[in-house]
């Protein structure tokens, strides 16, 4: 079931942190693709975990017209979308804030 209240415009593109398998007929620029140890072609990710095709300034896909089929099938507001958003939000909830203790 799709939640119509969920919008990409209020999201950190958390679906673009998932492993994105690239199929041979996907029109993805090949320099953005890497091969896993098991020989699977996937979208490369940056050091923060986002797909390298993400436009970091606007948090949207910079290769939208050439994105892989798996990205096209990901439905905004679907159960999978909502669970990823929730897991991402909780990751930061659980972080312990850094506190500077003045030992003087
Ligand atoms: S190809 Fe585009 S839509 Fe797919 S994960 Fe990368 S940035 Fe997101």
Main sheet makeup: 2 strands, antiparallel
What global shape is seen?
globular
The rounded distance between the terminal residues' Cα atoms is 57 Å
Q: Count the strands? A: 4
Helix content: 10-25%
Note the total helix count.
2
Strand content: 5-15%
- Which distinct ligands sit in these coordinates? iron/sulfur cluster
Helix and strand pattern: EEEEHH
Rg, Å, rounded: 17 Å
Unreliably modeled segments:
none
**Average pLDDT, to the nearest integer?**
90
Strand order of the largest sheet: 1-2
Structural class: alpha+beta
Protein name: Fe-S oxidoreductase
InterPro entries: Puta_zinc/iron-chelating_dom (IPR005358)
Organism: Lysobacter concretionis Ko07 = DSM 16239
Describe the protein.
The chain is of the alpha+beta class. The protein has a domain of 68 residues. It is 19% helix and 10% strand. It is globular and about 55 Å long. Bound molecules: iron/sulfur cluster (SF4). The site of iron/sulfur cluster (SF4) has 11 residues, from loops. This is Fe-S oxidoreductase. It holds the Pfam family CxxCxxCC.
Which secondary structure elements does this structure contain, and how are they paired or packed?
Layout: E1 33-35, E2 41-43, E3 54-55, E4 60-61, H1 69-73, H2 79-93
Antiparallel strand pairs: 1-2, 3-4
The chain binds iron/sulfur cluster.
Give a summary of the structure in a few sentences:
This protein has 104 residues and is an alpha+beta fold. It has helices at residues 69-73, 79-93; strands at residues 33-35, 41-43, 54-55, 60-61. Strand 3 (54-55) and strand 4 (60-61) form a beta hairpin.
């Amino acid at each position: 079931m799709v939640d119509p209240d969920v919008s990409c415009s209020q999201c950190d593109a958390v679906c673009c942190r998932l492993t994105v398998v690239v199929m041979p007929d996907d029109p993805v620029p090949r320099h953005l693709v890497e091969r896993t140890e098991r020989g699977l072609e996937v979208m490369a990710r940056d050091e923060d975990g986002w797909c390298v095709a993400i436009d970091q300034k606007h948090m949207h896909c910079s290769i939208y017209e050439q994105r892989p089929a798996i990205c096209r099938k990901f439905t905004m507001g679907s159960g999978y979308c909502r669970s990823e958003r929730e897991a991402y939000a909780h990751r930061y909830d659980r972080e312990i804030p850094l506190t500077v203790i003045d030992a003087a």
